[in-house]
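Hi there,

I know you've been waiting on this one. I reran it after we fixed the sequence typo, so this is the corrected version. Both the input and the resulting structure follow.
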Amino acid sequence: MNRISKYVAVAALMVTPAMVSAQSSAVGFGVSGGLAVPTGDLGDRVDAGYSIAGHVFLKPASTKNLRFRGDVSYASFDYKNIDASSRSLGFVGNALLDLSTSGGVKPYVLGGLGAFNGKTSTQLGSAAVVSTSSTDVGIQVGGGLNFQLSGFSTFLEVKYVNVFADGNSTGYIPITFGVRF
């Protein structure tokens, strides 16, 4: 079994319980985008970039404060001193715990596990581009605020993403605003 197949199997095991309990759940969709701030060694090499994501929300009827969310995310960064760029494509399963269910602004915390494909492309001369990529396990933890805005369900979120590559890890902090449908 190759590395990607292992990640797909892990993701399927993570999503299956949520899908079974979703039979009597509220399902929603969303999109988000914003700033991605690199941390650690990545922050030494690249400038701040951007992050966009699509979300599937599941709220089992049997849970009061617990929700689940699947994310497909994309983050992009440009290197500081060379003609190169780096991007991360992530597939993450999250658990969200609502800290309050009343009031106009509702805080929550989240944690998730998934697979991230990172790719770095470097421009060499006028025509040659050298690219390297790898797919690795990563986590994300953070929190946010749900609130209503002009009839839309929206959220503001800050999280830390850490991708565990061979022998090191890459971290960044997406600060995003999103809309739920």
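Quick highlight: Residues 16-23 have pLDDT under 50 and may be disordered.

Best,
R. S.
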